[in-house]
Design goal:
The protein is built from 42 helices and 22 strands. Helix 5 runs antiparallel to helix 6. It is α/β, with parallel strands linked by helices. The strands form four sheets. A seven-stranded mixed β-sheet has the order 7-8-13-10-9-12-11. A six-stranded mixed β-sheet has the order 1-2-3-4-5-6. The model has no long low-confidence stretch (mean pLDDT 92). The N and C termini lie far apart (75 Å). The structure holds zinc ion (2 copies).
Length: 1024
């Protein structure tokens, strides 16, 4: 028997080439009683490893191979939870002492752990002298035996003789026999134990090639290069016990040590601890009492009066919250939003938290879950094993300010951002492996940019399916090895990244429970991602950035400035965004016309098409819209029946009278997850918590047999409630059909208000709204130029940037009662914030009189000055842009068309005129229609349209066949195009081989409601 104590998984980041599953299952096949994980300088894989090994009855030994000052390796194994904690401490200390001034990026830096750190956290560890890069072996290899001995004495002093082992490996590398002999001799001289390992980096011998390739990526070299770090053989695989025993037949003591170590190691990782901090309630109050008080005072503000119904609901929620010991979490979130309110930072809770009335009363969410009859159990219940988290969107500009508040309040050692593991998918695998395998940059690029976003193990299939790959000129035989290698590294982690919103707060220093390090961006993150962190027992808080809130705030500010300019006193200002009525019919008219460009969540082509057919006239239609245009409902074919029933064109039948009150609001369609829970409660007598569990199982049911057994359970319970068996079966089949597609109503409701209100802004204040959207790009579905087209459609023109008039952000100028949008300075390519600031500050002392005056007063780079000139920012001083560029008055200015191109290149938008409008005279004789012309052309006519191509994409479809959707942008708006599979197969190369050119598309007109769609028959590049 043998136990492998030195193993690297893919979490050694490019130094482990078999999945952890493969390693563990191989160890299980050999009936190994224990297995250790010793990734380089991290515990990222520890939770996964703990779970995988425990599931197959192998004892997990959690460890790491650290890098010491001087780049020496050392293996640490945790004897028990205290040892685990010490490893967390050692790694954290090592990483956090890397200063940002160290050479290299955070992504590639390895810690240099000091002896002092080891001394502080030395207990409850077994320590092995490591591979050739260990201090002792490397000194011996350099012929410095006595120094090696001194080093060993240092380790003995640090960890104690019984805990420090001289590690022997038998990997058939040159000099290994000699090294082992001296290592064993040193052990004898110092009365140290020896231990046998194989320093495994992969499960099977053949994975060695991948290991070598990953090493090339890591060391930025190519396969043909010679490099001291490259392995010279494939011996570092998880060898069978008998093989290991025979390798170490001369060192029986080294085998005996394995048993001693194993015996003294207990499972070191404890999952599911309670680590959340308790909230400090005011004196005399328990946290429970404080939460209760806040909830009721909030309820009074929200509802005016607390009815029996409200009280009953709040009591029900408070009871569950406190039983689950979740009151501190609610209070912590309350405290954060309280801070945001005080600082006037726009925010709103999203997700299933909006099912909670307590969250509504604490001003965490804006959805009245009592009024809407939303089920709390979709958010949390006693039956549900895991605790839910609360997600809050903040004005993107101030999200970091809010998170700083959390750090400040709880202590920066108790708060950290959750990490993500950036993993290999198709494109990244081809790029990294291709470089290592010595493909030219052009060859790699041609391949990678044609790849859709798929896993690196789906490339072969993609080549069959996608014409831009299949019909490309790439010779696939050449890429075969590359594709095979990519397949093997699917989902392997590449580096540690930062989760966008996830923060964890712990009652103790986080480094007692998880190692902390810098992410690639330099943010302090936990080495566990959000799933592992929850397994550990910590609760994640999601503080997210929402640019839409920034744009809303800017719109509100611009509207106020406008009111101000019109002489309305501040205290008399009319516009109140918070109090906007949700019943403005002009706003619904905008939705019904499908003019929703820029409207939050309602602007995609699919949403625009839905809006023009759904004919929304109240906020519930908006809530339903958000739930309808999701991959699920589209795949599940729920959209058509929903629209038909909404308009009374299809009869609504309920198979049981109990379904009517539940499904009435969605016309008999199961649209929301909450409805599935309600049905199970009403029809089959589940408690709401059990019903939510049922819903979750149904959603994630992997197999037919699993679904059948859930169905039997449901039917049995329904029959016991007096429901006819056939009816019960029917209801279940209905639920099963929709369960995985349903959407959380609370989340839809939370977003619907913002969607409606942005539509209101778009309808009534288009200049301010589009100016604000343009200031906060990238935002939403469309590029800025599309938003400019829409602004012009609403009668709002754009004005060139101007050194005397432009602000940092887009602004609104009013002349003769007509509003225009002034392009911002920030939109000018390459300009820095410092340059913008200096222009605006200097202008306060008087307008710039000439370009000379400007350059005298402002210090800025030549590139920025050129870009300002080319974008028209000096036109009001000197209209001849070329003369400014060359400092010569003799020279003729750029042609109008050149100006159009240069402006677009620098600003990303057409200020004066859209390209297509400029070309229109040339396009007319070609028979090309505008998006405006289409409105008066009857259905089924064959037409030709042209424009800039906006977002070609291939969403999942019910049939599984590819359908491409895209929009063509011309000077009047968008033309939505549908390309079915047969046409896509012919023209895919044009669409998806990198950036898609402007296109001419021939196709037939199809109308649905007010929406117009072209079914493409032929495509060509528009070349003018
Ligand atoms: Zn090593
Ligand atoms: Zn190693």
């Amino acid at each position: 028997m043998f136990i492998h104590l030195h193993n690297h998984s893919p979490f050694s980041f490019l130094d482990g080439s078999s999945s952890m599953e493969a390693m563990v299952s191989r160890a299980a096949n050999f009936n190994m009683p224990a297995l250790a994980l010793t990734d380089h300088n991290n515990l990222c894989g520890a939770v996964k490893f703990h779970k995988l090994t425990s599931a197959v009855g192998i004892k997990p030994i959690i460890g790491t191979e650290i890098t010491l000052a001087g780049n020496f390796h050392l293996v640490l194994l945790a004897k028990n939870p205290q040892g685990y904690k010490n490893i967390c401490k050692i790694l954290t200390a090592g990483y956090l002492s890397i200063s940002s001034t160290s050479a290299g990026s955070f992504r590639t830096l390895t810690p240099q752990i000091s002896v002092e750190t080891l001394k502080k956290f030395k207990d409850n560890l077994f320590v092995l002298s490591a591979c050739r890069k260990g201090e002792i072996p490397s000194l011996i290899l350099k012929g410095k035996y006595s120094e090696a001995k001194r080093a060993a004495l240092k380790y003995i002093e640090l960890f104690g003789k019984d805990n420090f082992f001289i590690e022997l490996q038998q990997d058939f590398t040159p000099g290994r026999g000699y090294l082992n002999k001296l290592l064993a001799q040193l052990a004898v001289e110092l009365k140290l134990n020896i231990v046998a390992t194989n320093n495994n980096h992969y499960a099977h011998k053949e994975d060695y090639k991948i290991h070598d390739l990953l090493g090339c990526i890591k060391n930025l070299i190519k396969l043909k290069d010679v490099h001291p770090e490259r392995p010279i053989n494939g011996e570092n695989y998880l060898k069978a016990p008998l093989d290991m025993l025979s390798l170490f037949k001369d060192y029986p003591e080294a085998i005996k040590s394995l048993w001693e170590i194993n015996e003294q190691c207990e499972a070191a990782l404890i999952l599911g601890k309670k680590l959340f901090p308790s909230f400090s309630a005011p004196a005399g109050l328990t946290t429970e009492g404080f939460l209760r008080e806040l909830t009721y005072s909030g309820a009074l503000q929200r509802y005016g009066k607390i009815t029996a119904k409200i009280k009953q609901r709040l009591e029900h929620e408070l009871d569950i919250i406190c039983k689950l010991d979740y009151q501190d979490y609610f209070l912590l979130v309350w405290d954060i939003v309280q801070y945001a309110r005080q600082e006037k930072i726009r925010y709103a809770g999203r997700g299933s938290a909006a099912d909670s009335a307590v969250a509504f009363c604490l001003y965490i969410t804006e959805v009245d879950s009592i009024g809407r009859n939303l089920l709390f159990e979709r958010f949390m219940s006693l039956e549900r094993a895991e605790k839910p988290d609360i997600d809050i969107d903040f004005d993107a500009r101030y999200r970091d300010k809010v998170s700083s508040y959390v750090y400040q309040k709880y202590g920066s050692d108790k708060v950290a951002t959750v990490c993500t593991y950036n993993t290999y998918h198709g494109r990244s695998a081809i790029r990294d492996l291709g470089r290592a395998m010595d493909f030219s940059p052009e060859e790699i690029d041609a391949f990678a940019k044609r790849l859709p976003h798929i896993g690196s193990d789906s490339i072969k299939k993609a080549i069959e399916v996608f014409p831009e790959l299949r019909n490309s000129e790439l010779s696939w035989s050449k890429y075969e090895e590359l594709i095979n290698a990519a397949e093997k590294i699917a989902d392997f982690p590449r580096f540690i990244g930062t989760h966008l919103g996830g923060l964890v707060v712990c009652k103790e220093p986080l480094s007692n429970h998880v190692p902390l390090q810098y992410s690639a961006k330099g943010v302090v993150v936990t080495q566990y991602d959000k799933n592992y962190i929850e397994d550990l027992g910590l609760v994640k808080l999601d503080l997210l950035s929402l640019r839409t809130f920034s744009a809303i705030q800017d719109s509100v500010d611009l509207i106020k400035i406008n009111e101000n300019n019109a002489g309305i006193r501040f205290d008399e200002q009319k516009f109140d965004y918070e109090a906007l009525s949700l019943g403005d019919q002009k706003t619904y008219q905008l939705l019904r016309e499908g003019n929703t460009l820029g409207v939050f969540q309602l602007e995609s082509p699919a949403q625009r098409a839905l809006q023009s057919r759904l004919k929304a006239d109240n906020i519930e239609d908006v809530v339903a819209s958000l739930a309808l245009i999701r991959p699920g409902p589209i795949k599940g074919n729920m959209v058509e029946p929903y629209i038909a029933r909404r308009h009374g064109l299809e009869k609504i039948a309920y198979s049981h009278p109990k379904l009517k009150p539940i499904l009435e609001k969605t016309y008999g369609v199961v649209l929301f997850q909450e409805q599935v829970i309600e049905i199970a409660t009403a029809v089959a007598g589940f408690t709401p918590g059990e019903a939510d569990k049922l819903r979750r199982v149904m959603t994630h049911a992997r197999s037919q047999s699993e679904m059948i057994s859930i169905g039997e359970h449901f039917t049995q319970k329904a029959v016991a409630q007096g429901v006819d068996e056939t009816v019960a079966t029917e209801i279940f089949s209905y639920m099963a059909g929709y369960a995985s597609y349903g959407f959380c109503e609370a989340h839809a409701a939370a977003f619907a208000t913002t969607a409606y209100k942005t539509a209101f802004l778009s309808k009534h204040h288009p200049a301010e709204f589009f100016a604000s959207l343009l200031s906060h790009q990238p935002l939403g579905y469309y590029p800025p130029n599309t938003l400019c087209v829409e602004a012009r459609n609403r009668g709002v023109n754009l004005l060139s940037p101007d050194v005397n008039l432009s602000q940092a952000h887009f602004t609104v100028e009013k002349q003769l009662n007509k509003k225009s949008i002034r392009v911002s300075l920030k939109q000018v390519k390459g300009i820095s914030q410092k340059e913008i600031d200096s222009i605006i500050t200097s202008r306060r002392e008087g307008f710039f009189a000439s370009i000379e005056d400007f350059t005298n007063r402002i210090e800025l780079s030549r590139d920025t000055l050129e870009n300002l000139i080319l974008s028209g920012a000096f036109d009001s001083l000197t209209p001849n842009r070329r003369s400014l560029l060359w400092s010569s008055t003799e020279i003729k200015d750029f042609s109008y068309e050149e100006k159009l191109f240069l402006e677009y290149k620098i600003l990303g938008i057409n200020v004066k005129e859209h390209f297509m409008s400029h070309w229109r005279e040339k396009l007319k004789p070609m028979g090309i229609k505008t998006s405006k012309d289409l409105k008066s052309i009857p259905d089924n006519r064959l037409v030709k349209v042209a424009g800039l191509t906006i977002r070609p994409h291939r969403p999942p479809t019910k049939s599984g066949k590819t359908i491409v959707f895209l929009s063509l942008e011309d000077e009047f708006g968008l033309v939505d195009i549908t390309i079915f599979n047969n046409i896509y197969q012919k023209y895919g190369t044009l669409l998806f081989s990198g950036k898609c050119p402007p296109l001419i598309i021939t196709g037939t007109i199809q109308r649905r409601g007010k929406g117009i769609n072209i079914i493409a028959k032929g495509l060509e590049a528009l070349d003018l």
